[in-house]
TrEMBL record:
DSBA-like thioredoxin domain boundaries: 4-197
Record organism: Usitatibacter palustris
Superkingdom assignment: Bacteria
Protein name as it appears in the record: DSBA-like thioredoxin domain-containing protein
GO molecular function terms attached to this record: oxidoreductase activity
One of the Pfam families matching this protein, by short name: DSBA
């Protein structure tokens, strides 16, 4: 089973959805996941306004209540923090290129660092530290992270997301016969994900059974 997961590490609903997807993969050990970075707020250069900061904090409380995951608002309370999601997306692209099977684990580590621990994952050195904690070579990871190749590959992911018409994250799809079928758009519980996958698989198998 080939799943396609379109997400942004700094999307709070993607953070909340992570444990649900992890449980699904534990139930379906044969499934593989292709990560595609969506680009929630890429290339942003402006500091957060107070109204935006308050809106974000309120949103995080909602996600936390739904997912039961911890959120730490210390970083977004800072006047100097710039909420640019491109560096974290680029780091996941680099992790995927180095060791695709570990990319989802790395992305979850970045999310935990940002949302729970308030580490500034817009900074290359922090992303490289997390990579080292996740089993990657820090220096090689940092060098790739800052390369034009990684920046171009990340823009490629954003372009793929746009070409699929996806504007919200998380989005999960499954591939059959080179076609993608939507499994979930937005936070979805594991049981529902599993039910939808069974429904899609049944529908795809039905014509062959005749």
């Amino acid at each position: 089973m080939q799943l396609v997961y379109v997400a942004d590490p700094l999307c709070s609903w993607c953070y909340g959805f992570g444990p649900e997807l992890t449980r699904l993969l534990e139930r379906l050990p044969q499934a593989k996941v292709d990560l595609v970075m969506g680009g929630l707020r890429p290339y942003n250069t402006e500091r957060m306004s107070q109204p935006f900061r308050e809106m974000l904090a309120s949103h995080w409380k909602h996600v936390g209540a739904t997912s039961h995951l911890p959120f730490n608002e210390a970083l977004i309370a800072s006047d100097t923090f710039i909420y640019d999601t491109e560096p974290a997306c680029r780091a996941v692209v680099v992790a995927r290129g180095l060791f695709a099977a570990n990319a989802f684990t790395y992305m979850k580590a970045v999310q935990t660092a940002f949302y729970r621990d308030a580490r500034d994952v817009t900074q290359p050195e922090v992303l490289a530290d997390i990579a080292a904690e996740s089993g990657y070579g820090r220096d090689a990871f940092l060098e790739l992270l800052q390369s034009d190749k990684a920046r171009e590959a990340t823009r490629g992911d954003f372009a793929v997301t746009q070409s699929m018409g996806i504007g919200g994250f998380p989005t999960l799809a499954v591939s059959y016969s080179k076609k993608l079928f939507l499994v979930a758009s937005g936070f979805t519980k594991t049981d529902v994900l599993e039910e939808r996958l069974i429904q899609i698989e049944t529908l795809q198998a039905a014509p062959q059974a005749k």
